[in-house]
Write a structure and sequence with these properties.
Layout lengths: L4 E3 L13 H10 L3 E4 L7 H7 L3 E6 L5 H13 L4 E5 L9 H5 L34 H9 L7 H9 L4 E6 L2 H9 L4 E4 L13 H12 L5 E4 L5 H9 L4 E4 L1 H32 L16 H8 L1
Parallel strand pairs: 1-8, 2-3, 3-4, 4-5, 5-6, 6-7, 7-8
Bound molecules: flavin mononucleotide.
């Protein structure tokens, strides 16, 4: 890849632009970067796969109905996706109070399920939840997500696919070591954009502990709050191999569809190049731990 900036999986891109994830994939392809397609995408996997030659990873949620998750993995695999990103921080949905207040329904239509194009024909849902108010996403998630998600599901996933599996949502050294033991091909330090557990640590603050625990066995990626190229440089200095970007791409899509998403990725790339030049780094390989100073460094220096 020409750059270490990857598109994070975010659901329902048709909320931002009528072309949905097809626009995002084309933007990623134009920037020669990887797009991680969300399990909750509003476009079908087939549509996204045939729209361009972006390198694609497929993000997976583990449903109570394992057959549904397995079918989607197989579809992604047969369509040339290169890896599975298993999101491990969402055995249940976090309490999203704005969604509850706004009665989030995954518009433009009013139901969540029909917007998840990939589930068509695979599952039927109890959509009759108007009377309850609140977030339809929360209701939908409680029907579908398997709250018993655990390490054994990594084993299960390995048994149904030959694709490399990255675990997304690791924030501790302990889990990072377990992920490597479980055969993960990569670890993604993420707190789901702070949408799951309040008081989960900022990912940049735990990145280094995860990198140390993994000890180079597999690549470590990070997401959360990457808004500038200099943020990318900080993450690489602390040991990440790449960063993923969620909201900024979504905002670009909302502003100008495919062109907007591409603009966001290009802007971040240019900013990264600028930050690297100003730090004296001709290539990403030249970015070292010495390029950043953390709060921990400052405290240690006082001891
Ligand atoms: C609107 C929205 C939808 C998201 N949907 C998913 C999803 O479907 N699957 C997933 O693994 N993560 C999802 N995430 C989390 C992102 O993959 C990523 O971890 C997070 O957005 C990174 O933080 P950033 O938005 O600050 O870049 C979502 C985040 C947002 C903001």
């Amino acid at each position: 890849m020409p750059s270490p900036i990857i598109v994070a999986p975010t659901g329902q891109h048709k909320l931002a632009t009528p072309e949905g994830e097809v626009a995002t994939a084309r933007a990623a392809a134009a920037c020669n970067t990887i797009m991680v397609l969300s399990f909750s995408s509003s476009c079908r996997i087939e549509e996204v796969a045939s729209s361009c030659d972006a390198i694609r990873f497929y993000q997976l949620y583990v449903y109570k109905r394992r057959d549904v998750s397995a079918t989607l993995v197989r579809r992604a695999e047969s369509l040339g996706f290169k890896a599975i990103v298993l999101t491990v921080d969402t055995p249940v949905l976090g309490r999203r109070e704005a969604d509850i207040r706004n009665k989030y329904a995954g518009s433009p239509r009013r139901m969540i399920a029909p917007r998840l194009a990939n589930l068509e024909g695979l599952m039927s849902f109890d959509d009759d939840i108007d009377a309850e108010g609140g977030s339809k996403l929360e209701h939908f998630a409680s029907q579908t997500l398997d709250p018993s998600l655990s390490w054994k599901d990594v084993e299960w996933l390995k048994s149904i696919t030959t694709l490399p599996i990255l675990l997304k949502g690791i924030v501790t050294a302990e889990d990072a070591r377990k992920a490597v033991e479980a055969g993960a091909a990569g670890v993604i330090v993420s707190n789901h954009g702070a949408r799951q557990l309040d008081y989960a640590p900022p990912t940049i603050s735990v990145l280094e502990e995860v990198v140390k625990a993994v000890g180079g066995a597999v690549p470590v990626l990070v997401d959360g709050g990457v808004r500038r190229g200099s943020d990318v440089l900080k993450a690489l200095a602390l040991g990440a191999r790449a960063v993923m970007v969620g909201r900024p791409v979504f905002y670009g899509l909302a502003a100008r569809g495919e062109a907007g998403a591409r603009h966001v990725i290009e802007m971040l790339n240019k900013e990264l190049e600028l930050a690297m030049a100003l730090c004296g780094c001709p290539s990403v390989g030249d970015i070292t731990r010495a390029h950043v100073q953390t709060q921990g460094d400052r405290i240690r220096a006082l001891l």
